[in-house]
Amino acid sequence: MKKIFLYCLLLPGLAVHAQQNLVKYVKPIIGTQKMGHTFPGATVPFGAVQLSPDTDTLSYELNGKYNGDVYKYCAGYQYDDKTIVGFSHTHFSGTGHSDLGDFLIMPTQGKLQLNPGTANDTKSGFRSAFSHANETIEAGYYKVKLDDDNITAELTTTKRVGIHQYTFPKSDQSHIILDLMAGIYNYDDKTVWTYVRAVNDTLITGYRQTNGWARTRTVYFAMSFSKGFASYGQKNFDDPQVYKGFWRKFDQTKNFPEIAGKRIRMYFDFKTAEQEKIKVKFSISPVSQENAIENMKAEAPGWDFNKMKEEAQASWNKELNKIKIEAADDEKINFYTAMYHAFINPTTYTDVNGQYKGLDQNVHTAKGFINYTTFSLWDTYRALHPFFNIIQPSRNNDVVKSMMAHYDQSALKMLPIWSHYANDNWCMSGYHSVSVLADAIVKGVYNGDVGKALEACITTANHRNYEGIGEYVDLGYIPAEHSGTSVSNTLEYAYDDWCIAQIAKKLGKREVYDTFIKRSGNWVNNFDKSIGFMRPKMADGTFKKDFNALSTHAQGFIEGNTWNYSFFVPHDPNALIAAMGGKKKVGLRLDSLFTMHLPDEFFAETEDITRDGIIGGYVHGNEPAHHVAYLYNWIDQPWKTQQRVRMILKMQYKPTPDGLGGNDDCGQMSAWYMFSSLGFYPVAPGSDEYSLGSPAVKNAMLTLENGKTFTIEAINQSDKNVYVSKVLLNGKLLNTQTIKHADITNGGKLTFYMAAKPKLK
Fold first, then answer.
1. Maximal CA-CA distance, the chain
2. Half-sphere exposure (Cβ direction) of 399: Cα atoms closer than 13 Å
3. 341, 343, 345, 348: CA torsion to nearest 10
4. pLDDT at residue number 36
5. Residue 18 CB partners (closer than 8 Å, separation 6+)
6. Residue of 6, 23, 38 whose CA lies nearest to 657
7. For strand 128-129 and strand 83-84, is the pairing parallel, antiparallel, or unpaired?
8. Using omega within 30 degrees of 0 as the cis cutoff, is the peptide bond preceding 346 cis?
9. Residue 672: which CATH number?
10. pLDDT tens, position by position, 211-262
11. Are residues 385 and 496 in the same domain?
12. Of 266, 291, 318, which closes a domain?
């Protein structure tokens, strides 16, 4: 593969004050061919716009059933594809389900075509062939040559505005197509309604409402051209309607200023000179067309594309410079690519005037915080939000406030489960907002009303008709007959209940603490001592008989098997170790997990698990076992934590386009990488402790919001020296396998002494 980045030479030391151009180390690591990987386009940190190429337009539905191939296009882009259908403005990063792909734009020249055509015959539509040799991907910038029409496309963004620059050949038939039908996980009835208004020959506005993963999602837009179009038009692909009203008096197909329908593609015609650049600014808003215009005016007032690109990349450099590392080339590329991925989500969901559309579909104003959306909480509570509590505490404080606003606006009075665009799509299990709240509260990050936050957690945890909570409260587990994910739900609820107990403890609410700390022990109800595994339990109290410990399908677990989930008691590893028969037996079980072979047949029916994300029987490509390598610390074998962590870092993260072993899941996989590379990990968010591992960096300096710095040094670091002989904190020997959050935020230095052989005693 041709390298598409210029890598700068590593300096021998770390500059304390100078800002390095770390954008150069961000590489398009987007995932395996089968997975719904990250998108390669342009965005700014936590931006509302993720402007990126889409390489195909597969339908979610095929012959009335789910089309499994669409899973590859969760982010809209497949590295192995050879054509691009256009550039859309909203994307998820590395999710296992999808939505978005709004407002696809495609420049063409020659005969106008308003169908995308097929990948096998690009001349049959407006799509174009492209080559990775003519593709540049950087943080905040994307460039590609569209071979069929000899057009160069360049993209950059502000927080709420996508900026396009298209370099055309000489032509009297140059076009810019706006596809209002396109979408990710699309199907014929997904678009509920579309409205477009041509204000003048350089500005159009409108909105699009869709019914998908989010069922009531409306996005408003304003689209501005640097050059007036000569003519414009549209084609409505709606099925013939019985009632057509009296709008039929007009020819709405060409140069008509007000358009409405469900399935619309528009075009704008230009005459272009050789190498003429036409620029497009496309802003979005959750509230109104007027706000979309105001967002554009505020963030992108001029037409200097290079300036806006430089500002986008400067915003990335500002964020990436919060951690400066010295490491080998591959680790440095992996680290800053991971940091880039981690700072894409959550996404801004507030206009420049502070307005946003709430869960109640009313317009609200965020007062004293930025409202965020895109909460993939089943994934990100584990490491991403704890990482924010160190590096992005003010932003995570706003995230918690956004969750509280969600709760206030919820008709069901629940904190978010998996929310985006004023919707909760209810994906995955647990009520892990409470983990994010607890971690922020315990670590002193959240400055809002903690009492109200506790109330929101309790109310969510007692919502009896959601995912078996009623039976969980009454029985201490969820009967297998009533849920296909009965065991994983019970385990996740038990951990979340422990988180609620930590908030109650901080507030001195003893009765609440006692209630939820008791509930946090419910994991024991699914632990079958006779086999040493978590196992589905029936309503009559007996364990499910036809049970397969290797299978990831129909065994009571979501995205995993009992080999991975049986270790999911992150809040009380000591109790789990005792239940499993003690430290020696747990050590043997952990060793087996990492060294066994899990045959393909046991995850063939589980879409989110692929061979690439598996080490032995340990499924790193999915999140339930992300803490497991650190459990050796609890059984007096820390050297195995050190060895396993370094193995996972090498095997699951590589500086290649397919370098991720699974979905990045809005930054969780990347946050695991950063924590583990730095030498510690939050096994149980909601606690103020981090478990020590084996750093992959030589040095790292974390610049904290409070002005202090926390430095990590790994003496004698190398690929062979993965074991830790001793650890010093501020020059004093550490006698535990943990450090506390305050040890980091108070500033100081953590020094690891690395060796080629383990320290067994």
1. 88
2. 34
3. -150
4. 62
5. none
6. 38
7. antiparallel
8. yes
9. 3.30.2080.10
10. 999 999 999 999 999 999 999 999 999 888 888 789 989 999 999 999 999 9
11. yes
12. 318
